Amino acid sequence: MADSYLLAEPADRVEPFCPYFGSCGGCTLQHFGPPSYMALKQELVEMALRGAQIETTVLPLIEAHGDGRRRATLHARGKAVGYMRARSHDLLDITACPILVPALQSRASAMTRPIAATIGDCDVAFTATDTGIDVAVHTEKKFKPERLTLLAQRLGVPRMTLNGEIVLQSRIPSVKMGKATVELPIASFLQATAMAEGTLARLVLEGVGSAKTVADLFCGLGPFTLRLAETARVYAADADKAGIAALQLAVRNTRGLKPVTAQMRDLFREPLVPTELTQDVVVFDPPRAGAEAQSRELAKSKVKTIVAVSCEPKTFARDAAILIAGGYRLEKVTPVDQFAWSGHVELVGVFKR
Ligand SMILES: C[S@@+](CC[C@H](N)C(=O)[O-])C[C@H]1O[C@@H](n2cnc3c(N)ncnc32)[C@H](O)[C@@H]1O
Fold first, then answer.
1. Rounded Cα distance, 301 and 294, in Å
2. Kind and range of the H or E element at 195?
3. Stretch 248-267: mean pLDDT, rounded?
4. Distance between CA 286 and CA 289 in Å, rounded?
5. Which of 175, 176, 189 to mutate to test the pocket of ligand 1 (most atoms within 8 A of CB)?
6. In the chain, what is the straight-line distance between the N-terminal and C-terminal CA atoms, in Å?
7. Out of 24, 27, 97, 311, which one is annotated catalytic?
8. Which regions of the chain does DSSP assign to beta strands (E)?
9. Close Cβ partners of 106 (under 8 Å, ≥ 6 residues apart)
10. Domain ranges (residues) in the chain
11. Distance 315 CA to ligand 1 centre (A)
């Protein structure tokens, strides 16, 4: 299936809006008209659930592209700057990417060119924040960060880093999450579109309801924690040390939140065990590998409601099967289209016992 839709000619074919469609490996579904596009994304979720023999209600796909992707990594190899070509290891040179937020559409490649002219082949990750564009440059070669200082000043970005070291930081890039403002660490996870972050958070809050105590596992910078803490005490955990520190700072700087305990913890190796799972509701949002170890502990717990967010329906279905074998019902699944025109889909599932 993964490849078959790439070759499919949908009955409701539309003209792709990107001039690089077909050459670029990024968007594979721009030629799908709305009905077949929605059906395909829905099917990706339903197929994963069927594969694990799970029956539940799958609600209609929610569009969550919004203003576009606020994160993108461009590659520079030789004279080319862009993304990998479809089904190839070669780079496609681009001047603009229309699926990014307006601030990045043409600026990302325009900024990558002088960086590559200065240090050669590199990968440049851009994040459009509320306070400007955060630029993280990675290269195989060893350079002092000062090599890029003049260029960073000329580009007028609030922060540029080279292989994790600060080149220039005039202000820390930040994003608003609920009532809080979070200062972005250099390499922490951030949902790819602001609209998807808001949509996932809304579905999490709906699933949590009026619970007074919540655990937010794989919390990242806290987009759910910070919104949940407006009404509930939250225990939050993630393996990202800098992310946890940023969340703790955001909590300290925000008035009117209920108490939040945020802990750095590897939840693959050290999942919360039943004696720690004392909250009314547990939320989890793991990376693509899923939350198998944590699901095994949750299956033995007395937690009444679990809200699972996932960017990989297959590992979600595997984890859901573990929870169901432990006595949970999967009440509903809501697919969320964060990575529009790609073969990826996010989802939120609500489990009860
Ligand atoms: C899909 S992100 C979700 C983050 C957050 N919920 C959000 O919406 O921004 C997955 C998170 O899992 C974290 N993570 C990856 N492996 C982990 C592990 N072994 N233990 C704990 N957290 C981990 C990452 O640091 C990342 O923040």
1. 11
2. helix 194-208
3. 98
4. 7
5. 189
6. 33
7. 311
8. 57-58, 62-63, 71-77, 80-84, 91-93, 122-129, 132-138, 159-162, 165-169, 174-177, 180-183, 213-217, 233-238, 260-264, 281-284, 305-310, 329-337, 346-352
9. 95, 96
10. 50-64+193-352, 71-173
11. 14
Return the structure tokens found at 176. Answer: 């608003």
Ligand 1 binding residues, C-beta < 6 A:
189, 191, 218-221, 223-224, 238-240, 243, 266-268, 285-287, 311
Rounded to two decimals, the pTM is 0.96
Which amino acid residue places its CA nearest to atom 25 of ligand 1? 240
Q: How far is the CA of 7 from the centre of ligand 1 (A)?
A: 33
User: Would you call 311 a catalytic residue per the annotation?
Assistant: yes
Residue type at 2?
A
Distance 10 CA to ligand 1 centre (A): 35
Beta strand pairing status for 165-169 and 159-162? antiparallel
**AA identity, residue 237:** A
Nearest partner of 249 among 298, 344, 313, 182, judged by Cα: 182
Report the mean per-residue pLDDT for the chain.
Answer: 96
Distance 240 CA to ligand 1 centre (A): 7
Indicate the CATH number for domain 71-173: 2.40.50.1070
Structure-token pair, residue 279: 């909250």
Residue with tokens 């659930």: 49
Residue nearest ligand 1's atom 7 by CA: 220
Query: Which CATH architecture is the domain 50-64+193-352 placed in?
Result: 3-Layer(aba) Sandwich (3.40)
pLDDT digits (tens, 9 = 90+) for 59-90: 999 999 999 999 999 999 999 999 999 888 89
> Per the structure block, which two tokens stand in for 183?
């200062």
